[in-house]
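Before relying on records like the one below, remember that each one covers exactly one chain. Contacts with other chains, cofactors or solvent are not represented anywhere in the record.
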Amino acid sequence: MTSSHISQDAAALSTRVSGPVLLRDDPRVADEVRGQNLSLEHSPEIVVGAETANDIVEAVRYATTHELPIHVQATGHGTHENISDGMLITTHRLNDVRVDPQTRLASIEAGARWRAVVDAAAPYGLAPITGSAPGVGVVGFLLGGGLGPLARSHGFGSDWVRSARIVTRAGELVTASTEENADLFWALRGGKAGFGIVTDVTVELAEVPSLYAGSLMFGAEHVDDMLRTWARWTRTVPDNVTSAAAIMRFPDVEQVPAPMRGATVLNVHVAVPGDAADAESIVAPLREAAPALSDDLGPMALTDVGRIHNDPEDPSPMHVSSTGHLLSRFDDDAVETLISSFGAGAESPLTIAEVRHIGGTTPAPDTAVGGRDGDYLFSALSIAPVPQHELFASATEPFLAAAAAWLAAETPVNFTGPFATEARDARSWSPEKRERLAEIKAAYAPHGLFR
């Protein structure tokens, strides 16, 4: 279909949807498509700002008729490249969240962020199984499985999804649950993108009467020894304790508070759903091992769960490089390999080299989630004013080669980084799951319409 036909038919589409329909040369496009990564500049052929589920239905039917690839953006956290073709459907206007404290279910629209769900559930002593950053979109997190600060006690976020509504390639709005379209429901819990566009989800909320959580920060002189201490500590803690240790090198840029510019620290993040007195005894070995630069571990309101990792929520123009790998184990040899590559004495361009202790005993439902077989997850992140992907690769690849004996076969897809689809899929799911996911995509979204 030619651009002129797209332009002519866009006027008809705008009469069928509530939100804006914008062509590439419309001056409003830049504001409509702006996401978390301000360094990206999207310029698709047509943009639909969805206000209702029906808007998405009409947009998909239009794109199918015009053979346009479809991109979707709620917050833009998962977008790593400029979108320059097809249709982009933005869902940030679909942000309604409703909590039923009796059934412990939350109904969440496609553009909602986790902070809204956390705030709506907390007054009832309930909590969604969210990620470490409350500003992340709900749907993208859940489609990739979703690991957060309660991973060991409560599993993956997608384990708590009870149903989803999704627009298929045929422009039909269908429900996916254990009772309806069960194969699609299996895929949506951890199979990531490509099956259609989710308009809303229903998730079960967890009862969390009390939470003891926060972080400890240690200076450069204690980074290596505290990493060793934390690793040994994780082998003894109860199953409900989730934690992470992150070597952080703050860049020498004005966005970082002056006292921390250029500094190297170790941040230990801890979450214990339960009694504060018991939690105090659990974390005591960490406090006793070395003096902390800061210590905000203590009883925490459910609304403050984002403070555990304290990830930034505001959009940023900084360029990000990232990768993650599930570890089958994190023994003493693995710890020393990490220290030699990224410890206090190493020269590294990474902003963060982190290991999360995520393995637990929570029963796992049958879903598309990959990467359940490791107790630890390594992730690396570089944040810089200019792209430095080659420098990032030169820093991470030698470590990954040295750590090959500890790398698990699969890694949760949300942590694999911006790889090409084929390479990402090979790292994220077993051959059997990849085959099943491909069959489901062929049934609900053939011809790769959804990107």
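The first strand starts at residue 21 and ends at 23.
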